[in-house]
Request: fold
Amino acid sequence: MAGLKELRTRIESIKSTQKITSAMKMVAAARLRKAQILTDSASAYSDGIVKILARAGAAAREHQKENLTVSEFMQSRENPQKYLLVVFTSDRGLCGSYNANVARVALQRIHELENAGKNVQVVCIGRKGRDIIRRFYADRITSCIEGVARKGASYAESSILAEKFCQSFLAKDFDVCEVVYSRFHSVMNREIKSVQFLPAVWSADTDEAPKIELVDGAEYEYEPQPEELVNCLVDNYIKAAFFAYVINAQASEQGARMTSMDNATRNAKDMIAKLTLKYNRMRQTSITTELIEIIAGAEAL
Reply:
């Protein structure tokens, strides 16, 4: 029967798809594991820089009082009007609602800034984010950077990108740079955030400097002077912060893809089971019909 043949073809097709989604799930899991290791290592490094900056900054303010000169990357501009929004998404799909969720937060932030009378420009890191945002704000997108962390997140690669944004900040192409990315907590727990990148703040997540904890009243000695140390560490802090955005976005993407492919594999399994049951019933019906016809013909003779 034509129905049986079509069902067999469909079952084989779904089995092939199941093999592909299962393989993609394993690849995503392997990449996620690497990204998690990087996330943990980078977090420890970034936290260390923030603590040193906090201590050195407090010492510099105490040392220089009102004459403290800070790095240009830490100086907020008066009445900022030009905002740059850097949106982290993926270059490929098949990762559930990950890209749509990040783009939604970016669109909301663009709307808020424009309602406040700000001039907004958007840089998309990842093709999927550009495809969504340009439906609503095509004229705001200045560039799209593809292929970031294609072979895994690299500190050298992210540092080059961070330096480009820093140079644009010094050239006054924008007054404030904000980053919209997905903060990775676990495979099932990801938080879409919009944080300020430039001018640099003490922490990637808050504008407040962390409290300084001195062990047994210990005092720190700095060489060079604490104000020089702060300005030197700001560059490292900016690069570390941008690298954190990259690896969190990558871990979130791979986590979303692994979950999506796992769901697709399970759905394929369920569909195969249902179609196999339907195929067996149709086959049994066909056999029963043929038997009835044979018996009826024999009785007629």
